[in-house]
Amino acid sequence: MTKAAIKLVSFATLGLLAASTTATIANADGATYNSTGTITYQASTAVTPPVDPSDPTTPVTPTNPDGSDLTPDQAGTAGPLSIDFASSFDFGTQDITSSNMTYYAAAQKLSDGSTRDNYVQVTDNRGTLTGWSLSVEQGDFETSAGDVLKGAQITLGDGAIASASETPADVSAATTTLTPGTASGTILGATDGNGAGTNLLNFGDADGTTNSDTAVSLFVPGSSTKLAQTYTADLTWTLSDTPAQ
To answer: Where is the composition biased (Low complexity) (predicted)?
Structure first.
């Protein structure tokens, strides 16, 4: 560095010191004052709408297997920890047979006519990130007169988590075979520190469309008595605030 450059730097430093001294003197009679910023949270009581299994940032309107709109009793549960939607499974109309048979559920229909993987959706807006667990229980397949399709079991296959959350659910079951009258283990859940926001378990793949017609199946033994009737089974989905393991 040249001598001229050294002088310029020195002068600049002196100028800053002089300005600082002047500012200190000018503010000698000033004052300080404190104000505050506040925010208050309350637990949400809203119902989270279903979202697209192929794009969890986009709301969609699922329909029943026959294409009809969901009824009011099919709306999601309210509150900060909620089950927003679960598909109903349509295994079609089949010929009576004495052979063991496996049938596959049709894909989930949307109101725009497109289809997606069948899925279940959970939202955690508690803000605590303390985890949760979802299980499901299948009832017997019965006719309106109470005739039971003995041994009929649903299998939920190819389970894959889909979420737009920064801390998504981190526990899922790839395959779950249901036993009528017995709750499953955790099929979707979050350990402590995970599971905030909206999380889906797609029965197919995380992209929501891969195995739409084959992931959910129903096994019926050939030995089961079958009538030319419609058999229906209830599926009860249960969400608890117990962290998944």
So the answer is: 46-66
Residue-level pLDDT at 27 = 55
The answer to whether residues 165 and 64 belong to one domain is yes
| Residue written as token pair 């497109």 | 114
φ, ψ at 92 (rounded to 5°): 80, -175
CB hemisphere CA count around 29 (13 angstroms): 1
Same structural domain for residues 88 and 159?
Answer: yes
- Tokens coding 226: 């079958």
Q: What is the pLDDT of residues 26-40, one digit of tens each?
A: 557 999 999 999 999
Q: CA–CA separation, 141 vs 95, rounded Å?
A: 16
Looking at the domain assignment, is residue 99 inside a domain? yes
The pLDDT tens digits of the residues spanning 161-216 come to 999 999 999 999 999 999 999 999 999 999 999 999 999 999 999 999 887 789 99
Are residues 143 and 201 part of one domain? yes
Indicate whether 23 and 108 sit together in one domain.
Answer: no
Domain identity same for 112 and 157: yes
